[in-house]
Amino acid sequence: MDSDSVKKAIIKQVILEANIQNSRHLVEKINENCFEKCIPKPSSSITSGEKTCVTNCMEKYMAAWNHVNATYMRRVQEEVNKGSFAT
Amino acid sequence: MDSSAQASVSTADIERLSDKDKADLRQVLQKEEQRNFIQSQSHLFTDICWKKCITGTIKSNVLDSSEGTCLANCVERFLDVNLTTQNHLAAMRQRHGQ
């Protein structure tokens, strides 16, 4: 491999691993928070109502994550512009 | 998922990197680290703000507008707390002579 393809391979691998890590983290949080919301009292088997709640909750949690992430990034940019993070 | 690229970079390959590519890599990795930091903070904030803002039962798969506003305010105020703590800590440190 030449220098350029080594560089590209490393970048690809690093991004791939970060994305895997990020989606694992998201799934873990969805399980925690949607279990809490949708299964208030665990019964002997999961009901169809609970399943619907879980899938709705999952999509809603992802929407919440995106909303939070966008708000956070906007604020970081604002603080950078204000010079709050003086180096 | 394409895993064929995995483990294809050896130590010998890394030694083959030109100085320019090393510098490029350093820059890309630094940006990547920043992106990861923001993403992991977003996981923390979503967890905290979900608990504060999504209080009723789940009736749909979308956020309603009041939930959206609550989430945004929650993030903003959490960051205010963060900044206030940091600033106050700096002030306390100064007051106590480092």
Comma- or semicolon-separated keywords:
A: 87 residues, mainly alpha, Helix Hairpins, 82% helix, B: mainly alpha, 0% strand, flat, disordered N terminus
Question: What this model shows, in words?
Answer:
The complex is a heterodimer of chains A (87) and B (98). With 87 residues, chain A is an all-alpha fold. Chain A has a single domain, classed as Helix Hairpins, CATH 1.10.287. Helix content of chain A is 82%, strand content 0%. Chain A contains two helices and no strands. In chain A, helix 1 packs across helix 2. The radius of gyration of chain A is 20 Å and the shape is flat. Chain B is an all-alpha fold and 98 residues long. Chain B has a single domain (11-95), classed as Mitochondrial import inner membrane translocase subunit tim13 like domains (Helix Hairpins, Orthogonal Bundle). Chain B has three helices and no strands. Chain B has helices at 11-15, 19-53, 65-95. Chain B is flat, with a radius of gyration of 22 Å. The N and C termini of chain B lie far apart (52 Å). Chains A and B meet through helix 1 and helix 2 of A and helix 2 and helix 3 of B. Chain B: It holds the Pfam family zf-Tim10_DDP. Chain B: One of its GO terms (biological process) is protein transport. Chain B: Keywords: Chaperone, Disulfide bond, Membrane, Mitochondrion, Mitochondrion inner membrane, Protein transport, Translocation, Transport.
